[in-house]
Each structure stands twice: as C-alpha cells, then as structure tokens.
C-alpha cells in the first residue's frame, strides 16, 4: 500500500471523527436565526458554532442578502424574486420545516448548497479504454474499479506504462472529486495522484507481472498483473504484516486481498454523472418537479 493511500485513509477517518463530533453542534444551532448567531458572544461563537452557520449568518446580515436568496430560490425553481416570502415558505415546506417565512442558518446553508448543485452538470472526463504490448513496451489505460466493493473516486482515469529496458511499470491516475452534503462547496475538483513505480518480475508474450510495491515493514503491499490476451488488468493489495498505525489512527487489516481492475469505464462514469444530475433534480422545488413528472407521463402516453 502506497504512502498516499495510507494518508488518504487517515484523512478520511479523521474527517469522519470530526464530523461526528460536530454533529451535536450542528443540531444545537440548527434553528437559530442569523441575528441569534450574531448575538452569541464572540468567544463562544468561534469555539462552538459550526463555521457553516457563522458564514450563513454573515451572508444573511449583509447588504442585499434578500436579493441573493431570491436568486438562489430562482435557481431551484421557486419564485424567489417576484414572490420572495411565498418562495421562502415553500422552500421551508420542501425541507420538512415549519413555513415561518424567516430563514434559519441551517436553511440558508441548505439553500446555498442546493443552488450550487445546479451547476454540477456533466463534464468531459476521459473514459478511453485501450491496451497493447510489444517486445519492449506495454500500455494500459481505462477506469479503475474495486472488485466487489466501492472505490473512493469512481470517476477516474488510470494509466499503466511498462518499459522492459528499465524493468519498471509506471502507474498514474487522475480522478474527479465529487462534492457531497458535507462539502464546503458544490464544485468538482480534478485531482492527480502521485505516480507509482513497480518493478517487473515477469514479461511474457501477452502478460506482465510486477513485484509487490512496499516492503515487509509496510502495512499493505500491491502488485500488478496484466493480461493483454484476456484484457484483464489487476492490482492486488494484500496485508504485509507491518505497522498499520499512523498519526494515531489504526488501519484495519484486510479480511481478504483487495482486487482493483482497470476496465472500460464509459458506463461507470455515465452512471455516476446520472446520479449527480438526479440528486440535483431532487432538490428543486417540489411543485416544479411535479410538473416535470406530469409532462413526462403525458409524453409517454402520447407515444404509446
């Protein structure tokens, strides 16, 4: 297992821990109005109140905030500019809250997040799948997935280049970091992983095998198995028996080898973008969604 993988696992575990710790504060101040947040003593506010609520309060108490909220409501298909109070109440109803007409800091945060989600359209991302091998060079590119498990970044593009002269295979990857409900902003981020270098143990006519990356003192090791005849390209990660604790976080032992495979990712990537678009649609005004659904049903009947 690479240092980068361990670091990412640790960060993920730490973020989960912090999220759980902050949940009590999220619930405690959820129904506060912007003025109530502003009225909390500075020392208490900075140490207790979640940053998303502090930012929401500042946004609400700024000049022209109603216009900003109206624009965000419009993005969600409410009548935010021409019937602001009605739009706020309808938005609150869709959240399952009491339609008071006065936005709480949690509702303001939700409004901003949902409006930003409407910008998460399909973006061009490489999904090519190809492979070839010669007497001295080999190449594979495609999308990596974890067999029988979820992968952290399903929208990715992975490349393997092997050089017989140097006895090494290079593995590089870019991936799309997709925001979720806990993200600070609803924006995509294209990330690039550090290049990894694997020593080749066998170079055959139609296949290449590498030695495990990582020594006996590593937590986990990963090796590559490439079969160009069957178009099967695997990364096999196993427990190495070394130290699995870093920054005070203990990594769990794998119950079985973890198999990653580089495949044709067109269907995977299309499916993930469809999920993103579905989530964006689901936070639009309920009345608008009903009209869309009615229009779809009408079109179906007309086509029968």
Structure description:
The structure is a single chain. Helices cover 39% and strands 24% of the residues. The protein has 304 residues and is α+β, with helices and mostly antiparallel strands. It folds into two domains: 87 residues, no CATH class; 145 residues, Beta Barrel (Porin). An eight-stranded antiparallel barrel has the order 2-3-4-6-7-8-9-12. A two-stranded antiparallel ribbon has the order 10-11. The longest helix has 26 residues.
Task: Provide key terms for this protein.
alpha+beta; 304 residues; elongated; Porin
Layout: helices, strands, pairs:
Blueprint: H1 3-28, H2 34-38, H3 42-48, H4 51-60, H5 65-75, H6 84-95, H7 105-117, E1 130-133, E2 137-146, E3 156-163, E4 168-177, E5 189-192, E6 196-203, E7 207-210, E8 220-227, E9 232-239, E10 245-246, E11 249-250, E12 258-263, H8 266-282, H9 286-303
Antiparallel strand pairs: 1-2, 2-3, 2-12, 3-4, 4-5, 4-6, 6-7, 7-8, 8-9, 9-12, 10-11
Q: How would you concisely characterize the structure shown here?
A:
By secondary structure, this protein is an alpha+beta fold. It has helices at residues 3-28, 34-38, 42-48, 51-60, 65-75, 84-95, 105-117, 266-282, 286-303; strands at 130-133, 137-146, 156-163, 168-177, 189-192, 196-203, 207-210, 220-227, 232-239, 245-246, 249-250, 258-263.
Q: What class, by secondary structure content? A: alpha+beta
Number of strands: 12
Quickly name the level 1 CATH class of the largest domain: Mainly Beta
Low-confidence segments: 6-21
- In CATH, the architecture of the largest domain is Beta Barrel
Helical region count? 9
**Percent range of helical residues:** 25-40%
Counted up, domains total 2
Look up the CATH topology of the largest domain: Porin
Largest sheet: 8 strands, antiparallel, barrel
Q: Which outline best applies?
A: elongated
Radius of gyration: 25 Å
H/E element string? HHHHHHHEEEEEEEEEEEEHH
What is the end-to-end distance? 55 Å
Beta content: 15-25%
- Mean pLDDT equals 89
The order of strands across the largest sheet is: 2-3-4-6-7-8-9-12
